[in-house]
Amino acid sequence: MRVIAGPEKKTRLLSEKERLVTAYHEAGHALVGMLSPDADPVRKVSIIPRGMALGVTFSAPDSDRFNYDEAYLKARLRVALGGRVAEELVYDSISSGAESDIQQMTAIARQMVGRWGMSPAIGPVAVLPADGDGPLLPGVSQTSEDTQKIVDAEVRRLADEAHADVTDLLRRERSRLDALTKALLEAETLDEEAAYAAAGVPHVTVGSTTPAPDPVPEAVAHAAAIGGNPTARKDETT
Fold this sequence. Notes:
There is one protein chain. The protein is α+β, with helices and mostly antiparallel strands and 238 residues long. The chain has helices at 16-35, 70-91, 99-114, 145-172, 174-187, 192-199, and strands spanning 2-5, 11-14, 42-46, 53-59, 189-191, 233-236. It has a single domain, classed as Up-down Bundle (Methane Monooxygenase Hydroxylase, Chain G, domain 1), CATH 1.20.58.760. The chain has 6 helices and 6 strands. The strands form 2 sheets. Strands 5-3-4-6 form a 4-stranded antiparallel β-sheet. Helix 3 crosses helix 4 (145-172).
């Protein structure tokens, strides 16, 4: 067993199996982000427990975003599912660690369908509230049960498409997934350059003109804190 004192001064016991599953989970998120052209760059990956989160993958754009196109949002759906799919492929099972990922993915998909007109079945019509519990958008006083069923079906379609895409991607890139997992187990926290190098994914960082070097997982020994950002995501267990 591995004894870890979290930031809330609670002693955490993490078995080697849990540590390995967490490493694959975070590596899945990170690798999908690295290999999705429309996704934000991966900045840090960590398997050091923080609060209720067993691991964190932190992604952020090079500059502030004020508008989100459909390709970017679909990439967010895929990245959110990366951890769960990695567990499915490696262990042929799933865990509760994907709870916050599923909530995030569902929230994005529902807004795509019901607020942003990104569903051909709904069209450019607002059928969901502007925020979680506020009044409906102008022109939408109520929606029918049939419309809500269509919304639910479209959200499920987006989720299923993202799941299929991520499954195909991680199955093809299993060697990169294993390499990134190994580096995480050794270093526990990888910064941007180290993460891309460990996965063997060419990457040009801001201010650099050369891609990241070939993967050398054994040499990776970076450790840094995870910063806060609206695009950062963390995995929690209950």
